[in-house]
Amino acid sequence: MVTAPDRPRSTAAAAWRFVIVGGTNTLATTAILIALSYVMAGSLAYTIAFGLGLIYSTVFASRWIFTRGASWRATALYAVCYVVIYLIGLGCVAVIRSFQWPEFLNAISVFVTAPLGFVAGRIVFRERQREESISG
Q1: What is the DSSP letter of 8?
Q2: Helical (H) or strand (E) element with 79
Q3: Burial class of residue 39, CB neighbours in 10 A (0-12, 13-18, 19+)
Q4: CA 22/CA 9 separation, integer angstroms
Q5: Which of 42, 45, 47, 76 shows the smallest number of beta carbons within 10 Å?
Q6: Domain segments of the chain: what residues?
């Protein structure tokens, strides 16, 4: 299926791309999170891993998963959504720490935050297309 430039991709196509990009991002950042959790505070380990994942996700989400040629505004809004998602994940790590569970269980935060990233991308990049259709 050929997709015209600057048009949102179907939910199914975006979901598969998100699984590929999100999967590689999740595997890498989860490994970083677990490794760093053994040498520093869980919240700092989570922050470093999340920051690296945010860069990776923002670049690929706007260009390959949801649309082609996303505006800087939409990309910035997507990054802001990820700041909120980060805070949710940090809360997960805090809960895990409060139970004094093993460090590797900080990875549970990924299962909470990953789906939120997909929903944020779908909303942000779909809204961008609607705005351009109305104003164009």
Answers
A1: P
A2: helix 72-98
A3: exposed
A4: 16
A5: 76
A6: 11-135
Read off the amino acid at residue 69: G
pLDDT in tens, 63-96: 677 665 667 888 788 889 988 999 999 999 999 9
CA distances from 106 to 64, 77, 135 (A): 29, 27, 45
Report pLDDT digits (tens) over 30-66.
Answer: 899 999 999 999 999 999 998 998 888 877 776 677 6
Q: What φ, ψ does residue 68 adopt, rounded to 5°?
A: -115, 140
Rounded CA-CA distance 103/119 in Å is: 28
d(C-alpha 72, C-alpha 69), whole Å: 9
Q: CA 129, CA 65: separation in Å to the nearest integer?
A: 14
Specify the amino acid at residue 35. A
